[in-house]
Amino acid sequence: MGPMWAPNGERRTRRPTTKDEVVLLGHGAGGRLTAELLDQLILPALDGAPGPMEDAALLPGSPDLVISTDSFVVSPLFFPGGDIGSLAVHGTVNDLAMRGARPLALSVSLIVEEGLPLSELRSVLGSLGKAAKAVGVPVVTGDTKVVGRGAADKLFINTTGIGQRSGSLHPSAVLARPGDAVLLSGPIGLHGTTVLSTREGLGFDSDIASDTQPLHRLVRAMSPLGPHVHVLRDPTRGGLAAALNEIARDSSVAVEIDEGAIPVPEAVASACDLLGLDPLVVANEGCLVAFVTASVADEALAIMRSVPEGAQAVRIGEVLPEGRRGRVTLRTLVGARRIVEMPLGEQLPRIC
Amino acid sequence: MGPMWAPNGERRTRRPTTKDEVVLLGHGAGGRLTAELLDQLILPALDGAPGPMEDAALLPGSPDLVISTDSFVVSPLFFPGGDIGSLAVHGTVNDLAMRGARPLALSVSLIVEEGLPLSELRSVLGSLGKAAKAVGVPVVTGDTKVVGRGAADKLFINTTGIGQRSGSLHPSAVLARPGDAVLLSGPIGLHGTTVLSTREGLGFDSDIASDTQPLHRLVRAMSPLGPHVHVLRDPTRGGLAAALNEIARDSSVAVEIDEGAIPVPEAVASACDLLGLDPLVVANEGCLVAFVTASVADEALAIMRSVPEGAQAVRIGEVLPEGRRGRVTLRTLVGARRIVEMPLGEQLPRIC
After folding, report:
1. Nearest CA distance, A111 vs chain B (angstrom)
2. How many Å apart are CA A98 and CA A87, to the nearest integer?
3. Res. B14: pLDDT tops 90
4. What pLDDT digit, counting tens, does each position of B113-123 carry?
5. B146 to chain A: nearest residue by CA?
6. Which is a GO BP term held by this UniProt record (chains A, B) (predicted)?
């Protein structure tokens, strides 16, 4: 969930940032600013190099094991459809699933603000435990830190997951190919608009709920498609726009999607209209995009629709046979084409 | 580093905490309050059960792999001898080492407060990268979240490590046996007093520096001792008092140490006098206690002293042939005995 960084691949050189600059909210929003922070500061400092951004990294020496980490800072802690506890399980389970891995174990690390009611902590952890149990992944280790009042906002949760890949499903953000069909497993925009509406008291949250759910079963159902599944990505921070831009860049392909094919629930559309948001940049926590060989697209859709998590799966576009590499375009309802930009990233802080 | 929880073992039942209680600073300090939070709230919520507190958990299905997680919230970010970046590497590498494992891979997850100077972030990450390189462990994946001003205090870092055990060194907190010699690899109290002095402007930090360092080489040097090494533990939060109490409890043995044998640097003693602290409860980040078969104690000490990290290793006590299980006692300089209590936990927040 969100941009991961795997320090491998080709190094790019850029001017270092100047010393009077500071971290902005947008640096954590999963868009262009996040990518710049990674490329210009984090990876150079770690002596790594910018490479494909995958949702989970391979574990050195254990080629069938993958690892993924995420810190959850969503505000508020509780929202329609979920809470920070279930989200912390689903987010990491889904990152593992996007590499074709089933979850083996989770670690859970808490940073708690002094004064948090124990009842809230218990509720969150109960939800976390229930979500892990539903997925069938054990929480094997953890850590708890408490900081003084005002030094954190209630509760942050890190989960790190270890997953195991098996069979021939080895999707990667670099594997999209010209001609691929682009599939989407369900409607977009629910998580981000729900959290924002709850936080800001906008009232939309009576009509909508976060889509937070684990996607490992959906991915397992797709495993018979094996190497025909080129890319899997859950469009979390930065939404579908960020996910497709990352894939187009990392695979050096041109992607085109149909506005009319993208399922946007009515309440999401209304909320986005009011807030001036493009549903394409709103975070999701329970759907995935799949790039598959065109010849198996119908079979893939049928398989996705056979499990509840993919019941509303649709085909939304394709990888163009040719076109500007790294570019994502949208065919609008009136037949025009517009570029889908990588979101800059400042729009929706603390959405996950 | 600090109490880990591995939800296995025998369940204890206690009264649940009442709903108007809140999280206290002491709940995160590694002492009795931390243990109570774990036993009464966290583990029941996760449907786990209280068990031995190990520094790292075994990975299900991969008996040679261990996993450990820690969130670092130390304040200030920079202190004599280290910073939150190097600490985040050493802490997790050491937790893996305490299970006899060499580090295979680290994940790094950042929670950054809006407004943090990029120069500080770069400095911390440079230190983190340097520490990881010195250990020889790759940072394979990560995550960055940014929260608004006032929603976090500058920077928190989670590291999660995967380690591999090999050979016959399989230490565990449950393996201390009557007659064991208790060894300590170096002086105590440096990290906690340094951080506290720096934070509070007490001025001791001109004389002392954190002992933060990786201990994997020291543990590797001890590996020829194999099964004679029963327990390894780095006495971090809660200090030597917490570490020994946890081992005494988990192994159901009585431990006795000699006050005169415990190396307390003069500056640490002065600082503790002034602050009203017992050096036994002050956090360390670069030493370990080892419980070994008495017959190999001299050999173990010689091995420990052969590497720089263990140059000042000493024997500080033993597991009594009989005595009250779970109790730790101190033979004082004047020949009296006093009980070394598990610290309650409120003394030193945000020390790691």
Report:
1. 7
2. 16
3. no
4. 999 999 999 99
5. A28
6. protein maturation
Kindly state the average pLDDT of the residues B117-131. Answer: 96
Taking alpha carbons only, the member of A62, A311, A91 closest to residue A191 is A91
Count the neighbouring beta carbons within 10 Å of the beta carbon of residue B119: 16
Interface contact flag, A141 B25, Cβ < 8 Å:
no
Least confident piece of the model among A4-18, A152-166, B133-147, B323-337: A4-18
Searching chain A, which residue's CA lies closest to the CA of residue B7? A140
Residue A28 has pLDDT above 90, yes or no: no
Min Cα separation A113/chain B (Å): 7
pLDDT of the residue at A50: 52
Least reliable range by pLDDT among A18-32, A59-73, B15-29 = B15-29
Please state which CATH class domain A56-165 belongs to: alpha beta
Residue A133 in contact with partner chain B when CB distance is under 8 A: yes
Q: Where in chain B is the domain with CATH 3.30.1330.10?
A: 55-165
Q: Is A20's Cβ below 8 Å from some Cβ in B?
A: yes
Provide the residue type at A134 as one letter.
A
B131–A contact, CB cutoff 8 A: no
Instruction: State the average pLDDT over residues A229-254.
Output: 97
Q: Which helix (H) or strand (E) holds A200?
A: helix A190-200
- Of the candidates A46, A118, A148, which has its C-beta nearest B129's C-beta? A46
Residues of chain B positioned with their CB less than 8 A from the CB of A164: 61
Q: B45 and A147: CB-CB below 8 Å?
A: no
CB contacts, 8 Å: B45 with chain A:
122, 125-126, 128-129
State the span(s) of chain B assigned CATH 3.90.650.10: 181-339
Asked if A45 is an interface residue toward chain B (Cβ–Cβ < 8 A), one would say: yes
Q: B34 to chain A: nearest residue by CA? A: A144
Q: Which residue has the higher pLDDT, A48 or A289?
A: A289
**What's the pLDDT tens digit per position in B30-89?**
888 888 899 899 988 887 645 555 678 999 888 899 999 999 999 999 999 999 999 999
CATH code of domain B55-165? 3.30.1330.10
ipTM: 0.93
Chain B interface disruption, residue of A46, A111, A116, A123, most B CBs within 10 A = A46
The chain-wide mean pLDDT, for chain A, equals 91
Interface of A with B in 153-182 (CB under 8 A): 153, 156, 158, 160, 162, 164
Interval A311-343: pLDDT, tens: 999 999 999 999 999 999 999 999 999 999 999
Q: B181-339 — its CATH code?
A: 3.90.650.10
CATH 3.30.1330.10 maps onto chain A at 56-165
Q: Under an 8 A CB cutoff, do B162 and A20 touch?
A: no
